[in-house]
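Throughout this review, each integer encodes one residue's backbone shape. One record appears below.

===
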Amino acid sequence: MPLRQVVTGQGDAHCSSSRALTDSAEKFMKILVTGSSGFIGARLCQAWSNRGAEVVGTYGSSPSLVPSGVARVALDVKDPVAVTTAVGQCRPDVVIHCAAFASLQGCEDDHQEAEACNRDGSRHVASAAKQVGAAMIYLSTDLVFDGSRGWYVDAETPQPACRYGATKYEGEKAVLAECPEACILRLSWVYGTSANEHRCSAECMIDTLGRGRRVTLFTDEFRTPVLVDDVVGIVEAVALARVAGTFHVSGPRRISRYEFGLLCTKAFALSEESIVPASGSTTASLRPKDCSLVFSSRLRQLPCECRDPAEGLSYMASSRRRAKQD
């Protein structure tokens, strides 16, 4: 499916075109972000708010994690009446659905909760978005694939190997059934600087290394990590362009967790000796071995791109230094 008309857009990602059109468009937009207290949701709220858009962020139990300047709304996406009411009262131009039950082990332990949140909750949000005529963007995951070979393209049919991936794929199908013009973005492993206390795994690892402690990372588990700033830029661009379809958002390099850890030590001037290599085959890891994604060629029509992890981590490190100086 080709992209529909593309409106120039950028977030903190690599984008090359003029801000004039998007600045004007964003200031008159109303955005609803579910899961706004989470890592990606909070960054999206922060970015849209900084652009001048009116942003409403829903949360499950942690209102303090929703960024300042964002209207906070408590919402359980499993409750269809509550979702319809919240979206109907907000009447957004765009709904960005980030809320999910994202614990791999939790999804394995509680299938019912995983399905209720990731499948049914996504259906409720898409249905409500459709009712008010809002553009619907659903953030999915690379874990919809089984990881048997890697470098998956967006036209391939997912075959999840874990319950989390299975329910997220069920969520994709539920969203498209309710809202055929929705945009599904399958994200690879996302890293970067958080907007709140909900820190990503890369930040936690960097902080652990900074305290002089060792970190064990797998040498045989591969992803295509993508910087959260670039994810934000792509979400903004597809929202403004009203893009429909299913797309992969990933970095350009297939890399093991161990190799990613080594890149972190270089970017943050930490000791490589603190990174301990290990094999995932000797553990009971729930993560598939190779869920590397091929960045969707159709998204290249948008004025955004995803950075190599070495460049992304360097940007992350410099951003942290600037924050400390401020």
Notes: The chain has a mean pLDDT of 90. The domain at 20-193+225-252+290-306 is CATH 3.40.50.720 (Rossmann fold). Residues 18 and 204 are 35 Å apart (CA to CA).
